[in-house]
Amino acid sequence: MRVAQKKKRLWRLELLALTMIIVISYASPGQPAAARNLIQMVDEFTPAGWQIFGAAKQFGKENLWEQINGRASFFLAYDMVRMTFVSFVNSTNESQFIDLSIYDMGNPTNAFGVFSTERSQEAPAVKLGRAGYRSDASYFIWKGRYYIRIISSDTTDMFRQTGMTLARRVTGSLTDSGEPVWGLTALPPADRIPQSVRYFKVNAMGLEFMRSTYTADYRKGNRIVTAFLTKHNTAKSAQDAVVRYIGYAKNFGEGIDEMTVKGVDLVTCNMGGIYDVAFHKGRLMGGVSAVENRELAVSSAIDLWRQLPNDELTRLSLLARWPVEKFK
């Protein structure tokens, strides 16, 4: 009886080991199973009357420049994981093509970042994925961790219809974890211009110290104001970001003014006739940028500050560590 049980236990262990070998061999060599599945799926995307030109290809961080030289650094700055590329050509006219690029950006926030910074607010929206738009017969779509670009060689109705068919197939085949993007809800919706939110993982507004920053345009009467917002790990880190902003304004602007207006601590920066205003609220650091009117810049920054949630950490005063003299 014991011998039979022992043989049965050994059989189960051997079966488990064999299963693991099969799984590992499928996920290798050098590519995760998801990547292998994606490159195998492109055949299913092929529009009727079209065919794949050559073969589907995948590019990683080390060789993305081979496909999009001059643009690779943009996607790599958002920690791109892998790009899958395939070109479809018309079976009766190979000069007509539609190129499909699927960027796996690792998470929805990074995917939104590349989508949002390339997005045109004027382009007509398409109801695919979490967001998308059409430019002539080309389509740009964000779904979960993926950013999808469909580029057509012509702008005719046939290309628009074929591109839309392809876009539906691709987005319908990709999964979305549903993980939220913080800035889309953190930036107040009141007066916000639709489709204006952007996410910059690095170098927001051209400033190397502004990382993981969201911007959005707000309509204030007949003027448009650009707001920015980022969340730090600590209140002190947010405060330090304001101080670095002050240093930038002192070096490249025409003066700063630290003030408290209606209980809100602000730093107003004259950037040569246009005005930036920066603040922090607990772990949040934000403000407005490149506003032509000083009073509008201050009032818009206060509006933004008041609509932001109170952070669980105590708000620190700028003057507690950096005296007014340092700002002058």
Describe the structure.
There is one protein chain. This protein is of the alpha+beta class. It folds into two domains: 33-173, Protein Transport Mog1p, Chain A, CATH 3.40.1000; 182-327, Protein Transport Mog1p, Chain A (3-Layer(aba) Sandwich). The protein has ten helices and 14 strands. The protein has helices spanning 2-27, 33-45, 65-68, 72-76, 108-118, 157-173, 182-186, 235-252, 294-307, 324-327, and strands spanning 50-52, 57-59, 82-90, 93-104, 131-135, 138-143, 146-152, 198-200, 213-220, 223-231, 256-261, 264-270, 275-281, 284-291. The strands form two sheets. Strands 1, 2, 3, 4, 5, 6 and 7 form a seven-stranded antiparallel β-sheet that branches. A hairpin with a 4-residue loop joins strand 12 (264-270) and strand 13 (275-281). The model is unreliable at 1-33 and 312-328 (pLDDT under 50).
